């Protein structure tokens, strides 16, 4: 099914004052990837002491469950309605996304829809390009886009209007209201699994640590990198009215979300990795859901539409 996209229009020239210098772009990428790499080093150093294959499985499993909850549920289903799914499956995806502890369903969708309405222009809640020019401004913009915006009190006058469709669904209202419950569940489940796999209280503690807290750290920084890194570093094969970029590192780590320029050119597409080599784990899962009747009406742009938007 062809995605309903706006007619191709030439993207306005990007303000050269808002282009980020190479040195700032390198700092941006290092600022995000070094902490993630540090977690990997910690895992290697603690292997056999406070980390083992059991906790690796728990952490990876919880990462995928909550990550797909964000990418497939919060983002592609609830925000952009890029496919349809039965209400019980939608509710499960909402719970999975909530366990990522990135905000309740309604809050997340409202902020992301606002981002698309004003991407890299005034009104975008987390653009890195609205803080002036120069090195210091670039660093401020990176911090704001990555995490600073989430720490600020933001006006919510558009929240109701942006999510009016979701508020009409009583099941989604319950999922949203019980957000703190789902966050706690996302921490207790890996703790319980750690205890069951090792039959020890230490397993409970380490399951909570690695599958709960460390997993939340990883999923947060990978998700936030779409706001920061993927608006600063990468390629722009398609015309879009913003600085969105494809970044292969986060195309993999973020389960397909890193193909961000593709997404901003075709926001209602269920598929973000539009080239054969752009692996999109979330779309693979959506296709699998479609094959067994759990997803329908997948929206993907046709070849002629891709050609019209290509730069």
Structure description:
The protein is mainly α. The protein has one domain. It contains 14 helices and no strands. It is globular. Mean pLDDT is 88; it is low at 1-18.
| Total beta-strand segments | 0
Distance between the termini: 24 Å
Radius of gyration: 20 Å
Main sheet attributes: strand count, strand direction, barrel closure: none
In percent, how much strand structure appears in the residues? Answer: under 5%
Overall 3D geometry?
globular
Mean pLDDT: 88
Q: Which class of secondary structure composition applies to the elements? A: mainly alpha
- How much helix is in the residues? 55-70%
Question: How is this structure best summarized?
Answer:
The chain has one domain. The chain is 60% helix and 0% strand. The chain has helices spanning 22-46, 53-79, 87-98, 105-117, 135-151, 159-162, 164-167, 170-177, 179-198, 201-227, 248-253, 260-265, 281-291, 303-309.
What descriptors fit this protein?
311 residues, mainly alpha, 14 helices, globular, disordered N terminus
Outline the secondary-structure elements.
Layout: H1 22-46, H2 53-79, H3 87-98, H4 105-117, H5 135-151, H6 159-162, H7 164-167, H8 170-177, H9 179-198, H10 201-227, H11 248-253, H12 260-265, H13 281-291, H14 303-309
């Amino acid at each position: 099914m062809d995605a309903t996209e706006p007619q191709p229009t030439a993207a306005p020239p990007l303000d050269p004052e808002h282009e980020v210098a190479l040195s700032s772009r390198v700092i941006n990428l290092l600022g995000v990837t070094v902490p993630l790499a540090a977690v990997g080093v910690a895992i290697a150093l603690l292997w056999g002491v406070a980390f083992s294959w059991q906790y690796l499985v728990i952490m990876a499993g919880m990462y995928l469950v909550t990550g797909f909850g964000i990418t497939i549920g919060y983002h592609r289903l609830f925000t952009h309605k890029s496919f349809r799914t039965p209400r019980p499956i939608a509710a499960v995806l909402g719970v999975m996304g909530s366990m990522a502890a990135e905000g309740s369903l309604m809050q997340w969708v409202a902020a992301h829809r606002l981002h698309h309405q004003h991407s890299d222009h005034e009104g975008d809640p987390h653009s890195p390009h609205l803080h002036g020019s120069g090195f210091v401004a670039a660093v401020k913009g990176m911090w704001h886009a990555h995490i600073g915006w989430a720490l600020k009190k933001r006006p919510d006058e558009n929240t109701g209007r942006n999510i009016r469709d979701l508020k009409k669904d009583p099941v989604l209202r319950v999922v949203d209201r019980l957000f703190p419950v789902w966050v706690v569940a996302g921490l207790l489940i890996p703790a319980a699994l750690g205890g069951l796999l090792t039959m020890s209280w230490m397993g409970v503690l380490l399951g909570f640590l690695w599958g709960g807290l460390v997993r939340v750290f990883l999923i947060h920084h990978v998700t936030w990198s779409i706001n920061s890194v993927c608006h600063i570093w990468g390629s722009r094969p398609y015309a879009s009215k913003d600085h969105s970029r494809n970044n292969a590192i986060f195309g993999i780590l973020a389960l397909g979300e890193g193909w961000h320029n593709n997404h901003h050119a075709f926001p209602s597409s269920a598929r973000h990795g539009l080239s054969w080599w752009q692996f999109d784990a979330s779309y693979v899962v959506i296709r699998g859901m479609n094959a067994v009747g759990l997803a329908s009406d997948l929206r993907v742009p046709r070849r002629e539409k891709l050609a019209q938007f290509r730069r």
